[in-house]
Design goal:
The complex is a heterodimer of chains A (244) and B (218). Chain A is an alpha/beta fold and 244 residues long. Chain A has 9 helices and 10 strands. Chain A has a 6-stranded mixed sheet with strand order 6-7-8-3-9-10, sandwiched between helices. In chain A, strands 2-1-4-5 form a 4-stranded antiparallel sheet, with helices on one face. In chain A, helix 3 runs parallel beside helix 5. Chain A is globular, with a radius of gyration of 18 Å. The N and C termini of chain A lie far apart (42 Å). The mean pLDDT of chain A is 95. Chain B has a single domain, classed as Orthogonal Bundle (MetI-like fold), CATH 1.10.3720. Helix content of chain B is 82%, strand content 0%. In chain B, helix 1 runs antiparallel to helix 7, helix 2 packs across helix 4 and helix 6 runs antiparallel to helix 8. The longest helix of chain B has 36 residues. Chain B is elongated, with a radius of gyration of 21 Å. Chain B starts with 6 loop residues before the first helix and ends with a helix. The mean pLDDT of chain B is 93. The chains are: A alpha/beta (244), B mainly alpha (218). The interface between A and B is medium-sized, with 24 and 19 residues. The complex binds adenosine-5'-diphosphate (ADP) and magnesium ion. The site of adenosine-5'-diphosphate has 11 residues of chain A, from strand 2 and helix 1.
Chain lengths: 244, 218
Amino acid sequence: MTDSAIIMRAVNKFYGDFHALVDIDLTVGRGERIVICGPSGSGKSTLIRTINQLEEIRSGTILVDGVELTAGGDNVAKVRQDVGMVFQSFNLFPHMTVLENCTLAPMKTRKIPRAEAEATARHYLERVKIPEQAEKYPAQLSGGQQQRVAIARALCMKPRIMLFDEPTSALDPEMVKEVLDTMIDLAQEGMTMICVTHEMEFARAVADRVIFMDKGLIVEENAPEAFFNSPKNERLKNFLGQLA
Amino acid sequence: MIREFSSADILFIVTAARWTLILSAIAFFGGAIGGLLIALSRSSHSVLLRRLAAWFIQVFQGTPLLMQLFLVYFGLSVVGLPIDPLLAAAVALTLHASAYLGEIWRGAIEAVPSGQTEAAKALSLSYRDRMQHVILPQAMRVATAPTVGFLVQLIKGTSLASIIGFTELTRAGQIVNNATFKPFLVFGTVAILYFALCWPLSLLARHMETRMRRAITR
Ligand SMILES: Nc1ncnc2c1ncn2[C@@H]1O[C@H](COP(=O)(O)OP(=O)(O)O)[C@@H](O)[C@H]1O
Ligand SMILES: [Mg+2]
């Protein structure tokens, strides 16, 4: 057992001939909050999607909470129970109510009785500040509300690690804050988080470490202060210049 | 030998329609099970399963239903089974329906956005739970209208079973016509009965399609 939530060693990922992740080494401590940024197509999504094996890797090792992902057996299922994920496009189940979205996985994979699963779901819906929407369908909610449901749905599995893939990129500007606030809450409670985002305010506020990716490589990583104020890599300087 | 077309003949034809319905029901429900297996195989990760299912669909979509009927009918004796028109028609039509429903449902499964599978996987749902609770319910909405449409084709397709001597609606008509020689009257009656079976289903399919389209553009 280790003190690390996630360990990635020499991870390589290909899409056909395309080398999407190049020798990625990354260790994430328990309770650590990491923000990943970088130009579009640099491999940010691919990287976090290897952590719950939505993408399979060609070589290297990934350990999540001490469980080796690529070792076979039911390791992948185990890891996925411990790792929640929030997507850019929400991916709520449109044929289910908000409450059903939140109770499905706990009931099916954790075998939790319905009453308990619903109580948990209502608790987390309360926390993301939309308890009154429990009986509605996703299409009846605003984008910001949908994304908060998606966060609640992931939390209902009581994960120890949360992955966010540009959770605010598909939102209207006025809804970004409500989702970021939810994420900040979560960070303050000590959740281990990896967030792909270009919300630099968020990165400054909660990140322990910011990582810059380009062309499938981790090019630079540092505490937010140093990362933003004294970037070393040319491409990162360029990238930060474009954001400002 | 030629007699009048009587109410007894009409009764005979109408009762034979029962066999058209039974045969359609067997083929539809058998085809639903087969079609689901084909559709799941076609969209599975296993290359072997995908190939087998694709091959199955190609064979059954690429040959006439009548040939399939003949092959199964005469094939029964080859594998030591009694030559029975109902059994042969049921088996052939079930295979035929499996291929077509498999293809319709594969399309419906693939129409569900990949983000749905990803979200379900991220929640650690098993393949079975993903299919049962997330993917298939959404695919079903897309698939119902074309499925009902295919059922109409299937009901009409059962008429080919008359050629291997199974007395369903069409063959009942032939028998009556041989005795009365009133082809227009007899086959007119037969056609009206097919129409009475298929028309409501066609309406239903069209109704579901418009409802579907409205649901999508909502
Ligand atoms: N399923 C896929 N098949 C082929 N190439 C892909 C696939 N997914 C991503 N890629 C490619 O991999 C690279 C990294 O993609 P991604 O991780 O989505 O980047 P980012 O999230 O940083 O924008 C891109 O060049 C993209 O085109
Ligand atoms: Mg991305």
